[in-house]
Structure formats: structure tokens, C-alpha cells
Amino acid sequence: MKNTTNEIRKKFLQFFQNKGHTILPSSSLIPKNDSTLLFTNAGMNQFKDFFLNPKKKKYSRVTTSQRCLRTGGKHNDLENVGYTERHHTFFEMLGNFSFNDYFKKEAIIYAWELLTSEKWFNIDKNKLWISVYQNDEETYEIWLNIIKVSPKHIIKIGDKNNCKYNSENFWQMGETGPCGPCTEIFYNYDIKKNHDFSKFLENKNEYFIEIWNIVFIEYNRVSSKKIIPLKYKSIDTGMGLERIASVLQNVKSNYKIDIFKKLIEKISYFSKTTNLNNISLKIISDHIRSCIFLIYENVIPSNEYRGYILRRIIRRMLRHAYKIGIKKNFFYKIVPYFVENISENFNFLKGKEKKIKEILKIEEMQFSETLEKGLKILNIEIKKASNQEISGNTIFYLYDTFGFPVDLTLDICREKGIKVDLNSYYLEKEKQKKRSNIGSKFYKNCNQIININDTCNFEGYKKNTIKALIKHIYINKKSVSSISEGEKGIIFLDKTCFYPESGGQIGDIGKLHYKSSCFIVENTKKYGNTIGHIGKVIIGKFEINNFLYTKINKFYRNQIQINHSATHLLHAALRQVLGNIVTQKGSLITNVRLRFDFSYPNIIRLSDIQKIENIVNEEICKNNLIKVQYCSLEEAKKTKAMALFENKYDAIVRVISIKKFSIELCGGTHTSRTGNIGLFKIIEQSSVSSGIKRIEAITSSQAINFLHIKENEIENISTALKTKSINFKEKINKLITQVKSLETQVNIFQEKENTYQVQKIINNIENIKGVKLLINIFNNYNHKSLRFMIDKLKKDFQNIIIIFINKNNNHYNIITGVTKNLTNYLTALEIIKIFIKHTNGKGGGKKEIAEGGSFNIINLSKILKIIKLWVTLKLENKKNHVRE
């Protein structure tokens, strides 16, 4: 193929090199020393300081091919990707820059020559159209009279809403920074039609493609309302590599150029679609490039900052993979293909290929289950949507309960032509923020405040949904007859499948529903002998004596059950390893982790923790059945079941047994087999109080993710040490040995230096009343060495007072030493107190050695004279005392 993407990049850089430009490499996607940008979003980012002050420049003319990412802020293309033929999250920006060198005329001439010359890109001049800023007459005249472009092909673009500088032809990097008018060059795919000005505006996206933007940096935006002229004028141009490639390869979509064509074909191999124009294929091909380069830049998926953007991209990509039938992990399989076949200009990726694959695989695994469940619920809600609109409550429920990203919900609804009530979503989000304060306090204490003389049968051990009767409704601690949409309260039923918070296990969540009414259960608690379903109505109304259906969140319950069964295994393993002295003192079992408090008076060693983990995981591998049986309390005791807080058990008790390994009385919910736990990992052990220890652990996918993180940390350390992970311990030991050797050498050199310094400064010793006094000022000297020198001087001179001042920038340290035979007449601590008094400093010490410090001492010489005078008077008194 002629004009491959790599050839186009090389031609561009070569052209400007011939014009006296220095070719510089792309800067990182992570802007350095620029808090205004999340990612590098334009070629000019790395030269921002040069535009503001060209005196800092190293070069007058520069050309680059810059890696860019636009996923937020002023330049956010994420939502357009796949739905247009031109937008990308990650792309390369070809650019040429002048820092107070050439300006408008030369920049325009260079651009025209590169685009139209037979030697270079050889584009038909008749297919090129020009836009200029309406107030920039100089640029208009250059195009018209020097380049000789037809006036019919030059379009002036004004300001929007009569707001100065608010124009498509006034370029700004961000909210602040260098900016200026620009002229854009468009390629016309529909040359047969003679478009006039209005037609251009109407069909700009359909027939015209913007291929080059030449910005004349004349101003600096210092705030949203203030723009000031720059003393020096510069040029900043940007031409998207993918866009110019589509023109030169004679295709009308960026996704049909060579690099994307290969990538889309590879992705389609894993899918159920043969349509290479499928939007999902485009989105995945774009997003996989972004992911690869972001992870290369050490961005890791997380819930904040740059990691959040990466996570959004991965999850959006995963959702589109599901759309085209890809249900198994596959993103990591694309990485080697991309590195080998598409990244000719990015050989540096090969060094991090393994890391990129691992991170993508882990993130995909983590989100797959959430995505599947969220999609099912959302599709049901879309089918039920009245007026073709999804409520904000539904969006929030998906986000809050399942962790289903809001942007994915919006993306799906947009595709299906469904409106979204974002206002109510944001309202729910605000309520959530307050929930941990007002709401949680109410919920925490409401079971003590509300007294209901009633019962509720729990039928949730075997059932996930049942039909039940509403018996009581409470809002703000008051009994009411009904609860309506938007209201928060507690619903009490005659029976339920929701397990209430009890025995350390958190309560179930889910929903109560009937016909078009829905109550989201956010927690479930006991109130005497009955059970309260705490939450809010998101649609419809519920009244006392109405029937409804209860439905727990099965995934949430399953994670709790797994952790509860793992807690029983942990308890038994603790007693095996540490002895029967272990007694449970408390526990917390959630859908994320488990916590177990127990009595044990001794230190728990790492080897003990590992033994406990091994025993639990062995039981998990056996995949034993977890049996449930009911018997009398006495019968349970005969089986040696562990019965905690016996006075709380009824005559008939529920026994959970895992073979003979663990037998406990327990009312909580459990998984059916130990194998369902998957993996058990202790992540922390601590002391809660005297004799009470705490172990926190995770299971299943949480444990796997934890191990992956640790594995990545080891890999990163190994990479930093330039060794294989299997050898990194050996490499560290070698480095420790080397460091110790170097430290020994440094100490030897330092001792020699200290001895030299002592020899150097003893010439400054004064004799006062038969006693030697040494005052010396140092600059940024090693503190430890100063102490060494004082000790040496005190040994060499049996009758000496030493005062060292060490200046470090605007901070002054004083160290003073006095030989023991003089401490009856004056002390080092007394000298420090004088220093502190006159400098507002701090310090302390003993009679023979003391230290202090202060900031910004202006009159140091005067203070030292005062100290010297005080010493002289003290020594004079000493002499008189001896005479007497």
C-alpha cells in the first residue's frame, strides 16, 4: 500500500526537517509539571513554556509526532468515538512549531507546499478549503493573494453568541494557557458540488474533513475572562495522522486506514460479527490503543484521577465486546498482535507487553460479572420505560448496588434512543453523600427506637423471592399507612427472604416490588422478633395490607455466604494451629471481606498465618458439602459443635457442619460447598486490645485480584532491578551488600574529611583565661560529622569549649560541646539557652553536649559575640574562684 501510516509520518517529519526544523520525540501522555492537564491532548503541550517565554527555547523550529489522549475537559472525544468516522481517544498529532521565528506567512506556505506538492502529499488543490478567524484579515490576505486560493474556498468563522474569542477558529489549549486565532485546512470529498458558505457549515462533517489546524499563538489566557497579548509570537500546528492517512489512502473513514483495518480484522476474529463496519469493532479498536499506551505510561485502573479514565475506557470496551458476542476475556490477546503488527513506530512497547496483558486481563475479569448482571437489569428497565425515558433512580440503583458505571448506562440508552433523567440521578447521588451521616445514624439506632409487637418468618435460606404481606410501614420513626415514590422508610412483612443483620453478617439488599411499584432495600435489620426492610420507594406506592414480592440481590448474598462459610473454616483452622485457647470474640461478614476477632495472648507469627491459610485452602479444594441441620441444643453439644453466647440460642438450633472439620451453631446464610469459596487470603492481622487479636481476610475474586496486585508489584520491582521476578530476592541481597560496602567506604572518606576539617579549624582556637574556645560556621555540613568532630576535639584538648553553627539555606543549627572538667563553671546547655533567647529558636541537651536551631538569623555575628562575652565572664569567675 502506498502512503502507509508510517510512511506519512516519516514524510511529514522529513519535510519540516528540510525546512530547518529539529525533529523531537513525542512527550509522555502524562504531562510533566502541568496540573491543568489530565493527559497530553495536543502536540504543543510539551512546548507550553516556550510559547509563553521563547527565551527558554532550545530550538527555534521543531517538528513532532505527538501521542495524544482526549477523554476529558475541553477536549473530550470519548462519547463520539465509534459514532463518527474521525474521532479517537488516542491518536497521533503531527505538528510543526516556531518559537518567535517565522509566523503566519511562512507557516501557511509550508503547509500548502507539503499538501499539494507532487514531491510530497500531492493533494488536488481544488479539493482544499480554508477557514480563518473572522477578525484575522492578515491570514485571509495571505491565502487570497500569496497562495492564490479562490475566495470561494476561503471561509471566515466568527464568534459564537457574540462572545469575543469564542470561535472554532480561535484555538485554546485548555481553561488557561497560550492561545490565538487559527486557520484550518479542509479536504472536500464532494468536489463535484460547488458548495457555498452556508453549504460548508451544513455539510462540514459530511463532505469536509479538517486535516490541518495552524494556530497563531499571540495571546495567553490567564483566566476565563482575561486574555493578554504575548510579547513573542509563535506557531503551533496540528494535523491528525489518522485523518491525513484516510485522505492519502483514499478512504472516507479513519477506521479504514491500514492500522485500523488490521486491528478491526483481528478483533472481529474473536466476535460473532463479520460486518467490519460495526460500531463496536471501531470502539474496541480505538480503545485498545488507548489502554495499551496508558498502561505503558504506568497508569493503572482505579476509581480516581487517570486510573479512573483508563477503567472507563476498559469497561466501555468490554460492554461493546459483549454486544458482538465476545463473552470471554480477549483484550489481552490483542496486545501481542498490536505490538508485533501495528506498532512499527513504537518498539518501546515490547518491554511492557507482559504487564499490559496482565492488567487488561485482571480488569476484564473483575468487571465481566458486574457487566452481565447490570445489562440484564438495564434492558428490563428499558423495555418498561414509560415515555422512552429511564429514571435517575434506576441509573443510581445500577450504579450504587451493582457498581454499573453511569457512562455505560448513558451510552446504552443513547444507542436505543432512550432519554435519561440525569437530574434525579444527581439528586440521588447527593442523598447518598448524606446517608453516612443523617441516614446511617437513623438506621443504626432505629431498631432500638421502633418497637413492634409482631413477628416475621424468615424463608430466605432456600428462597430468593417470595410473596409477602405488608404489615407495618415506618417513616422517620413514625408508623404510617403508606409510603410513596421518593420517600425513605422501613417496611415490615409477615415473611421475607431478606436476611437481617445478625451474628456479624450484614443484612441483605434487593427490592420489594409489585406491578409498577418498586422499593429498593438498602439494608435489613432485626426489630425485636420482626424484620425491617430499610430503603426507599423509587417508583409507585406501597400500603399496609398490600401484597408484594420480595427479591434479594443474589450476587450480593452469594458473596456474603462465601465469606461466612470461609469464616467458619478460619475459626477451625485457628484452633488447629494456635490451640483451643482461641475463642471467638466477634466477627463481621460482608460481601467484600471478613473480619474475625478472637482471644489469643501470644504473638501470631507469619508462619502461623501461612499454616492457617494452607489449612483453609485445603478444605476449599476438597469441595466438601456444607450441611445444615436442626436439632436441640443438647444434641448439638454432643456433636461438639462450637456454641457461642449460648444464652441467645433457642431450644432448637441450626448447626452448620463442614465434614468433621468445622461444626458450629449459626443462623447465618452459607454457600453450598467449600469449593465455591475459590480462594482464601489473609490480608491483615492485628491486636484489637490486650489478648484480643483480629484477622481480616478476602476470598474468591477479591483474593485473586489481591494476589495479582502483589504479583504486579513484584514484577515492577523486578523490572526496576532489571532482573527476572524469580531472581529479584538475590538481586536485592546483592544490592544490600553493595550498599553496605559503599557505606563503609563513605564512612572512611567521611572520617578522613572530618579529620581534615578538624586540622583546618584548630587554627581558629582562642585562649580565654586558660581555656580553649573554638567557634566555627559551616555550610550544609553533615550533622553526624559535626558530632564526631566535637567528640574528637574534646579528646584531643582536655580543656575546650566548642561552638559549631551549621547553616542550611535559611535554617541555622547550633551544636556545642564542653569538656567535663569545665561543667562546674559553664555548660553546653547554658550556651544553647543564650542562643535560643536571642534567635527565638528551640533546643536542649546536657551539660557536655547540646543542640538547637532557628530560622532566618540576621544578626548571627552579634549573637556569637554575646555568647563569647558570656563565656569570658564565666571563665573570669572561674579564675577568681580558684584564687580564693
Q: How are the elements arranged and paired?
A:
Elements lengths: L4 H14 L3 E2 L24 H5 L8 E9 L1 E2 L2 E2 L13 E10 L4 H13 L11 E6 L3 H10 L7 E4 L12 E3 L4 E12 L8 H7 L4 E16 L2 E15 H8 L9 H13 L8 H18 L8 H19 L7 H11 L11 H32 L4 E2 L1 H11 L3 H10 L3 E2 L1 H28 L7 E2 L6 E11 L2 E3 L1 E3 L3 E6 L1 E2 L13 E5 L2 E11 L2 E10 L1 E3 L3 E6 L1 H25 L4 E7 L4 E6 L6 H16 L4 E7 H6 L13 E7 L3 E4 L14 E10 L2 E8 H22 L6 H34 L4 E3 L2 E9 L3 H14 L3 E9 L2 E8 L9 H12 L2 E4 L3 E7 L4 H24 L1
Parallel strand pairs: 1-2, 6-7, 12-13, 14-19, 33-34
Antiparallel strand pairs: 2-5, 3-4, 5-11, 6-9, 8-9, 9-10, 10-11, 15-16, 15-18, 15-24, 17-23, 18-22, 20-21, 20-24, 21-22, 25-26, 26-31, 27-28, 28-29, 30-31, 32-33, 34-35, 35-37, 36-37
N-to-C span:
109 Å
Strand content: 25-35%
What is the general shape? flat
The name CATH uses for the topology of the largest domain is BirA Bifunctional Protein, domain 2
By CATH, the architecture of the largest domain is named 2-Layer Sandwich
Structural class: alpha+beta
Radius of gyration, CA atoms, in whole angstroms: 37 Å
The major beta sheet can be summarized as: 9 strands, mixed
* Count of all domains: 5
Low-confidence stretches: 435-448
| Mean pLDDT score | 87
CATH H-level superfamily title of the largest domain: Bira Bifunctional Protein, Domain 2
Q: How many beta-strand runs?
A: 37
Q: What is the class of the largest domain in the CATH system?
A: Alpha Beta
Helical content, roughly?
Answer: 25-40%
